[in-house]
Automatic annotation (TrEMBL):
Domain of life according to the entry: Bacteria
Domain Fido intervals: 100-249
Keyword Transferase among record annotations: yes
EC number, as in UniProt: 2.7.7.108
Keywords per UniProt: ATP-binding, Nucleotide-binding, Nucleotidyltransferase, Transferase
One function term, GO molecular function aspect: ATP binding
Catalytic activity reported: L-threonyl-[protein] + ATP = 3-O-(5'-adenylyl)-L-threonyl-[protein] + diphosphate; L-tyrosyl-[protein] + ATP = O-(5'-adenylyl)-L-tyrosyl-[protein] + diphosphate
Protein name: protein adenylyltransferase
GO biological process, alphabetically ordered: regulation of cell division
Keyword Nucleotidyltransferase recorded: yes
Amino acid sequence: MNKDPFEEYIKESEPAKRDKGYAWHTAIGLQAVDGLKTSEYLVHTAVRNIEGEISFEEANALLQIYYEENPTRDASDRTEEADKVSARIAALLSERAFSFTPNEYLSIHRKLFTGIYSHAGRIRDYNITKKEWVLNGATVLYGSATELRATLDYDFSEEKKFSYRNLSMDEIIHHLAFFVSRLWQIHIFAEGNTRTTAVFFIKYLRTLGFDVTNDIFAENAWYFRNSLVCANYNDLKNGIHETIEYLELFLRNLLLNENHPLHNRTLHISGTFKETEKPDIEIKKPDIETLKLDIEKSFQTKTASHILKLREAFPGQTIFGRSDVMKVVDIKASRASDLLRAMVEYGVIESVSGHGKGKYQFRQH
């Protein structure tokens, strides 16, 4: 699907369709924070909802029937999750009801992930770590399992006491970035934290008078997550300090309609991807040695070897899928799916629309 099916609704449509178009576009875009892609069936269902043919309840019911009739055989294929959570996010973003409480935060998670995660709406009871591409494989220090509810309650109470009166817009943006970064750092759930935080934050911003009906979240969800990571990571011996500067840029685009470039490569702690100059249009091929070095830094040896072999097999903008990966590096289907997901999450490859489900190409750095 080459043409964005939601663009016309967001930019030119009547208010009711515009709001639904924004909700669906954002909901689908947010799946990128976990490297997930939705199906064309979901997009078709979303358009029917925007046009008023079906309600959100009917959209969710249609998805349930669709996946009962077309069960996913590959355990690593999370399209069903992406579709169902997208529909639920769109419904929540279309509701105006909201209360700024810890229970509302927990309720959003439960509504999004019931039937998908066994722990939907429940606070995790164990500590977690997550390897982050933007940190070269390191992890943020998330909230301790023994203190999660107390920490959540504290952050909410502090925000409730805070007054935005007489603040400049720069000060408001700074404080909002600080608040959402701390809320996310708690990581109160075992999975689904970023999507839950994004939905809660959007609804909170509306209570503060912000419209939030553009495509910034939809188009830059992965940047949003990486900026949250950067806001909560320190490695002082190597000169790395937590910073909310990237979140502030994101929020300035979201809330003030500014146009700051939001490139994930500028967030990477290695500095390898932080070139800001425009590419030389005379250069037709990427620097293979630099690309090789970047991959070897970001992945374990065996995985890096697989990726470099794939890069050689599928040069330029060659399109490939899981079966191609299985043949080139001689691995099973489940391992190929894991490898593809990792490459998407780390920004090595990108999904290609209009070429069928599960088709990719290497990013042109």
